[in-house]
UniProtKB/TrEMBL annotation:
Residues 17-84 form the HTH gntR-type domain. This is GntR family transcriptional regulator. Keywords: DNA-binding, Transcription, Transcription regulation. Coiled coil: none annotated. InterPro entries: GntR_C, TF_FadR/GntR_C, Tscrpt_reg_HTH_GntR, WH-like_DNA-bd_sf, WH_DNA-bd_sf. Pfam families: FCD, GntR. It comes from Agromyces aurantiacus.
């Protein structure tokens, strides 16, 4: 292959990758904002026409969403948006507790039996930013939208900050792999929370963490699990 042909092939591969990333991002935002609801079917032909891309590009985007657990692919049924039943809620919360509670236990020991302001500052900043979105995200009767999507991201930032305080790269990496699934999880939790109640619950957790550490976080996670299963 000549240099020119090689460069052309590389450019085509780059364009294809960019197209897949673009379609994946657009579909991801529609799922996480609630525009595409639980169990909504994802159609290759429809998406290809809508986004002006090939079905191969759409298929690759769907594969990425399945890898992020935002979608489910089943034989003879195609691809659909993930929904959480009680079993899945419990399994995800158990995995979160295994990672997050252990991360806080490590951080608690790392800082000598407490969690200082400097360790909690990133989590506190996420809660403050969440509070500022309350008026735009808490509109009774409205479907979730961009404002709630940002609340989801800030909620994920809060918990990621607690995990990061552990300084444990493997736990941080494992928790980050849950990223999109946790965003979808908080979308499903929306009927049980307003932004104000979400902020209040997380500020209370920040107050308790310096004294109680992992026990406070475990109770926090058990409370949200009980709400969803109830």
């Amino acid at each position: 292959m000549t240099d020119a042909a090689s460069r052309a092939a590389t450019a085509r591969e780059g364009a294809a990758t960019t197209a897949v990333e673009r379609v994946t991002a657009l579909l991801r935002d529609e799922i996480l904002s609630g525009a595409l609801g639980p169990d909504a079917p994802l159609r290759e032909e429809l998406a290809a026409t809508r986004y002006g891309v090939s079905r191969h590009t759409v298929r690759s985007a769907f594969q990425r969403l399945v890898a992020e657990r935002l979608a489910i692919a089943e034989p003879y049924r195609g691809v659909r948006v993930t929904s959480f039943d009680d079993r899945q809620v419990l399994a995800l919360q158990q995995l979160r507790a295994a990672l997050e509670v252990e991360a806080v236990r490590i951080a608690f020991a790392r800082y000598g039996g407490t969690l200082p302001d400097e360790a909690l500052a990133p989590a506190r900043a996420a809660v403050d930013a969440m509070a500022s979105l309350g008026p735009s995200a808490d509109r009774p009767g409205e479907a979730p939208g961009e404002a709630w999507l940002e609340v989801e991201r800030l909620h994920a930032d809060f918990h990621a900050a607690l995990v990061a305080a552990s300084g444990s790269p493997r736990i941080v990496e494992a928790h980050a792999a849950l990223g999109s699934e946790l965003l979808l999880f908080i979308l499903h939790a929306r009927p049980h929370y307003s932004v104000a109640s979400l902020v209040e619950e997380h500020r209370r957790l920040l107050e308790e963490l310096p004294e109680r550490g992992p026990a406070a976080l475990r109770e926090h996670l058990e409370h949200s699990t009980a709400l969803l299963l109830g």
